[in-house]
Amino acid sequence: QVRPVESGGGLVQAGDSMRLSCAASGRLFSTYAMGWFRQAPGKEREFVAAIGEMPRDTDHEDSEKGRFTISSENAKNTVYLQMNSLTPEDTAVYYCAARPREIGREKWQYDYWGQGTEVTVSS
Predict the structure, then answer these.
(1) Rounded Cα–Cα distance for residues 34 and 108 (Å)
(2) Theoretical Cys-Cys bridge with 34: which of 49, 79, 81, 108, CB 3.0 to 4.6 Å?
(3) What sign has the CA pseudo-torsion 5, 43, 58, 99?
(4) What is the pLDDT of residues 16-66, one digit of tens each?
(5) 121, β-bridge pairs
(6) 113 with 5: CB under 8 angstroms?
(7) Are 49 and 70 a contacting pair, CB within 8 Å?
(8) How many C-beta atoms surround the C-beta of residue 79 within 10 A?
(9) Angle in degrees, CA 102, 19, 44, rounded to 5
């Protein structure tokens, strides 16, 4: 079992960068795929990026490619989401989730969820 805990959210200005972290407890971290999702006010939770079990292949939502990058640091049981050139449309609660092995883009594929970290981008 893996328990994700997000951190790193806050208030930034448009054009700024931010890095979110997701620390996951559990002995088998490297065998889990980790995903980032976000939910803006009044909208559905949507896929942002995911990273698979070793050797850690990645998948990014097309609209964020080039701006957002997911990575992992297995020695720290941590996954990161680097976000650059932020816009007010990126304002949302960002969630980290875990599932065994394979990357997924659907919420229902993930078994374990964090509480979320709020990101607000001002114009």
Answers:
(1) 13
(2) 79
(3) positive
(4) 999 999 999 877 788 899 999 999 999 999 999 999 887 789 999 988 878
(5) 12
(6) no
(7) yes
(8) 29
(9) 60
Written as six digits, the tokens of 19 are: 């890095």
Residue 109 has which token pair? 């594929």
**Which residues lie below 8 Å from residue 106, measured CB to CB, with a gap of 6+?**
47
Strand order in the sheet with 68-73: 3-7, 18-25, 78-83, 68-73
Q: Over the stretch 68-109, which tens digit does the pLDDT of each residue have?
A: 999 999 889 999 999 999 999 999 999 999 999 889 999 999
Closest C-alpha among 43, 38, 7, 10 to residue 121:
10
Task: Return the bridge partners of 55, or none.
Answer: none
Tokens at residue 98, please?
A: 């875990």
